[in-house]
């Protein structure tokens, strides 16, 4: 494996991706925990508060000054959901030591700064700094309220929410406005301490590095002070509720263009089915040569956007279309024809070849970007299934037409969501 995994402590792993393709080193700290309604808003707020200042760099100005001293290093953070897990993500990118004008260890300094921000936050009166918490609560509120600004993304999120109602994956990753009022500097800090003692911790280093990073991290005070744990996170995701008849959800809003999202369940889940599902999705709507793009958008002119994406961790495919509101039924009927045609095997060997070529091109591009490669190996860490790129490519090449037809016939429509106008 190109990624060398080293156990620092129980529940805390270091992953070293040794590559000379880049002039930078990219560090990442991922904190993984179960996704649940009770804590989703707190989890979204924590990185926003942590980035404001640590015990050693007490505000954004000091952090930025330190980054400038480190030849313009860059810090970033965010949140995501993978399956039924919630991920807090922290990144630090800095120039590789080999390209410095003087002999300095910017990699070690980057580790110190990043770990200090994540594990050693600024506190006051047994809580986070109140000013930072209240300020970031308002910022988070605006993010949550602003989710309707991107109508395409809003419709996609709403379809998932309806499809997974009452289940972790249906939660909005930035949380809920009604939760913010009950959060304060003290109870957020108490929750942070509990979370940091229980979550799964993965530290990634990508660049020209060696195993000396292990010694650097083991000697770091923040790692020394972080307790071993049996990490609490979800190794298996809940599926959406099986439905006898597809659910149709219509939501009205002040929009001029309709957003049609169709959530599909891939019920086949044996060895190799995920690779077949990837090829199926590419033929259905995942590429510019797909049925959705060619038949719904280009030939019938029923959609401005017509595509699909496959979520491996949930074994779902989501069809996404931007359409004229008056064309809703025509577009829906034609989309269903594409799904039925896939079941009948109404696609060519060229379709399969083009789909495979597109997927393999994406696989080959993964190691060309440091953050993509880190996320590739992190995905394997969460799924506990290790695979090199060559094996991944071979598994795609091994998919046959009958495998795709089998997948097509295991697919059921779960939820149809349509965002339409008030009129």
What structural keywords apply?
423 residues; alpha+beta; Cytochrome Bc1 Complex, Chain A, domain 1; six-stranded mixed sheet; five-stranded mixed sheet; 43% helix
How does this structure look, described?
The structure is a single chain. By secondary structure, the protein is α+β, with helices and mostly antiparallel strands. It folds into two domains: 3-225, Metalloenzyme, LuxS/M16 peptidase-like (Cytochrome Bc1 Complex, Chain A, domain 1); 247-421, 2-Layer Sandwich (Cytochrome Bc1 Complex, Chain A, domain 1). Helices cover 43% and strands 23% of the residues. It has 16 helices and 13 strands. It has helices spanning 40-50, 60-69, 106-119, 130-145, 151-163, 177-180, 185-198, 212-218, 221-225, 273-286, 291-299, 328-344, 349-365, 370-383, 389-397, 401-408, and strands spanning 3-9, 12-18, 24-34, 74-82, 85-95, 123-124, 127-128, 200-207, 247-253, 258-266, 305-311, 316-323, 411-421. The strands form three sheets. Strands 1-2-8-3-5-4 form a six-stranded mixed beta sheet, with helices on both faces. The protein has a five-stranded mixed beta sheet with strand order 9-13-10-12-11, sandwiched between helices. Strands 6-7 form a two-stranded antiparallel sheet.
